[in-house]
Design brief:
This protein is 35% helix and 27% strand. With 262 residues, it is α/β, with parallel strands linked by helices. The strands form two sheets. Strands 7-8-9-3-10-11 form a six-stranded mixed sheet, sandwiched between helices. Strands 2-1-4-5-6 form a five-stranded antiparallel sheet, with helices on one face.
Length: 262
Amino acid sequence: MNNTQTPHEYEYLIRTEKLCKSFGHLEVLKDVDLAVKKGEVIVIIGPSGAGKSTYLRSLNHLEQITSGRIFVEDELFLDRKHNHTVHRVPADKQKALLLEMGMVFQRFNLFPHKTVLENLILAPILIRRKSRAEAVESATRLIERVGLSDKIDVYPSKLSGGQQQRVAIARALAMEPEIMLFDEPTSALDPELVGEVLAVMKSLAKQGMTMLCVTHEMGFAKEVADRVVFMADGLIMEEGSPKEIFEHPKHEKLKNFLKNVL
């Protein structure tokens, strides 16, 4: 980082150093180092069981890491060694930094008893302390952005899987995050519905949203990613531009993985 930066500037939005996660004796993540710059789209690929989803869940505290350091906006967010916390930012700062991360899961997790609009306005009102009028105005724009203006008063049970996932994306965006984490957002969808969700994600990328995506959609990775990261056995084995990863893979495990998925 150069010395001319103001206090509000940072080199990396999220960075991890030697991040490890174990479930009992099973090591799921092993010394994962990764840094994400603002506006960057990083796609993580790899076989099932590689640790991809666990890595994402570790970033926003859905999983407690075993050891390693997590930085958010270049500030040391969490430092753990051997399941012992060495450093953690104060609770109010922790909450503020966690709110900078929006997450979209494989399952949509919408509130079934609330309409599309109500799903979007709940958290901004309760957590961001927006007025109802502000929340509704923002939510209406986001619902239009994901192409669902005609579904604004509909309940999730009346939506297709693809539509529900688009609502889930809009709901995450309603919290105005700095980065969007996508954990295999199309894996639970029927094949014919995948395209509509990927279209929304491509649109976000074009508009400059910082994104960290775990996905099996190789076409999306080739088209949208600034960097592709290949994980296997809890390790980052290779990373580079889409061209480097897909056309000139170096690691034998990456070569074998691509043979099976392309």
